[in-house]
Amino acid sequence: MFDVLPGTPIGELLRQPPIDPLEARILVSHALGLTRVQLITRADQPCTEDEALRLASLFRRRIAGEPIAYLVGEREFFGLMLHTTPDVLIPRPETELLVELALQYLPQGGRVLDLGTGSGAIAIAIAHQRPDAQVTASDRSTAALRIAAANAARHHARVAFIESDWYAAIPPGAFELIVSNPPYIVAGDPHLSQGDLRHEPIDALTDHGDGLGALRQIVAGGAPRLAPGGRLLMEHGYDQASAVRALLQAAGFADVQSWQDLAGIERVSGGRRI
């Protein structure tokens, strides 16, 4: 049992093994409603009994493996704070590459679809950067769409949300750009039972097969939903770039290529509809 004693100075709360100091700072700031500067200026201030109870609960849950993003209820993505719950994947920095590419290829006033939007991170980041764009986001999860819509409202991002299992409710020829970060982890991958992934929605992580199932569906239905010259961009696993390029080429896409993230990993692949 992990406890925090009432009267413990705030400065000591930031050094609570086995909690990582950075994570402790985030949790203490969240529980006590203090800014980073206030954590320093009030380092000698003792915590109250109620604050100690709240912090002990958060610390215990973190030690048990619950993700920080779920404990504090939000995560930053592309400069925007987004509400996150166990109903959606936690936005990750490597996915920002997909947004950067979308902003590069989306024409002025263009129409873009984010398939499997989850928290809405990709769609909202695009809409926030490009208010001229017509952004649509879809997901088959009603709970995820509620979270995404709230995030869009929080940032005054103009996004239309559609409940759809991939392309089921998506009309043909409607977009200049389609983007997606689908489930691509192979069933049985040991990472699914490690770290934050243990607590994230399993169906948003894996296709329960070879990891390419969702990517195959997205590629197969992409061209009919794209305007001529439109592009399809997809995030995928660290070792899937070659397989995804082959899918795109077999489906008749041109200019097929992959892009590396900041770690030098081929993280996004895409192509252009002829």
Explain how this protein is built.
With 274 residues, the protein is α/β, with parallel strands linked by helices. The protein folds into two domains: 10-64, no CATH class; 77-272, 3-Layer(aba) Sandwich (Rossmann fold), CATH 3.40.50. It contains ten helices and nine strands. It has helices at residues 10-13, 21-32, 36-41, 49-63, 68-72, 96-105, 121-129, 142-154, 213-225, 241-250; strands spanning 74-77, 80-83, 111-115, 134-139, 159-163, 175-180, 226-235, 254-260, 266-272. The strands form two sheets. Strands 5-4-3-6-7-9-8 form a seven-stranded mixed beta sheet, with helices on both faces. A two-stranded antiparallel ribbon has the order 1-2. Strand 6, helix 9 and strand 7 (226-235) form a beta-alpha-beta unit. Helix 2 packs across helix 4 and helix 6 (96-105) packs across helix 7 (121-129). It starts with 9 loop residues before the first helix and ends with a strand. Residues 96-187 form the Methyltransferase small domain. Substrate binds at residues 181-184. It catalyses: L-glutaminyl-[peptide chain release factor] + S-adenosyl-L-methionine = N(5)-methyl-L-glutaminyl-[peptide chain release factor] + S-adenosyl-L-homocysteine + H(+).
